[in-house]
Amino acid sequence: MIKNKNIIFIGEFLGSCFLVMIIVGSGIMAENLTDDNAVRLLANTIATGAGLFVLIISFADISGAHFNPFVTLAMFFNKKIKSNVLITYISAQIIGCMVGVMIANIFFEHEFIELSTKSRDGMNIFISEIIATFGLIFVIFATLKDGKIITAISVATFISAGYWFTSSTSFANPAVSIARTFTDSFTGINYQSTPNYIVAEAIGLILAIYIVKKIIR
């Protein structure tokens, strides 16, 4: 059972903060250690997948381990949470992701806030991010009945796979997309590309909600 708003906020803030620290920090570490982009992506993938699994297991019984405004909205539209906690969830996720990117930047002696110069544009990337977000939300709802361990494994492995089979590298999270705008590193995204990612993620969300309502009981 989900706890009160203060506990939800703390859980989602901490989980989102650690998620972005893991994504951005491992990307910077990989960037510092090698010039091979395949190795960089592999290192980033392993860290993100491992981190997601641990964070979902740790916070599932505290806040539900959403760490993503669109997961929270999907939960609301599928009547898993009530409207009175939406602001709590989404504000905690966005603030947590922003704090996470600043801490990761500081870890590696970057400016604590810096604008990314990494362009991620193109219809191929836009479509990839639709599919990534759709897949993430579908996987969550398809495995919820199986318990938090199965959901954690499924989400972690899907996002790990998404780093490789999509050209967008599967952000699938508007709060993470915003945060990654503020690191000029391997995992960054130029602010001009960020809105396209969020729009694509919103389309993926809408499609997922429709399909989940149709085929998952």
Report on the structure:
- This protein has 217 residues and is mainly α.
- The chain has one domain (5-215): Up-down Bundle (Glycerol uptake facilitator protein).
- It contains eight helices and no strands.
- Helix 4 (86-107) runs parallel beside helix 7 and helix 5 (123-143) packs parallel to helix 8 (194-215).
- The longest helix is centred in the first third of the chain and has 29 residues, at 5-33.
- The model has no long low-confidence stretch (mean pLDDT 97).
Task: Report the CATH superfamily.
Answer: Glycerol uptake facilitator protein
Query: What does the radius of gyration come to?
Result: 16 Å
- Number of DSSP strands? 0
> How much helix, percentage-wise, in residues?
55-70%
Give unreliable regions as ranges: none
Note the overall shape: globular
Beta-strand content: under 5%
CATH topology: Glycerol uptake facilitator protein
Q: Count of DSSP helices?
A: 8
Task: Give helix and strand order, one letter per element, not per position.
Answer: HHHHHHHH
Under the CATH scheme, which architecture would be assigned?
Answer: Up-down Bundle
Gap between N and C termini, in Å? 20 Å
CATH class division: Mainly Alpha
Biggest sheet overview: none
Mean pLDDT: 97
* Total discrete domains: 1
Helix-strand category? mainly alpha
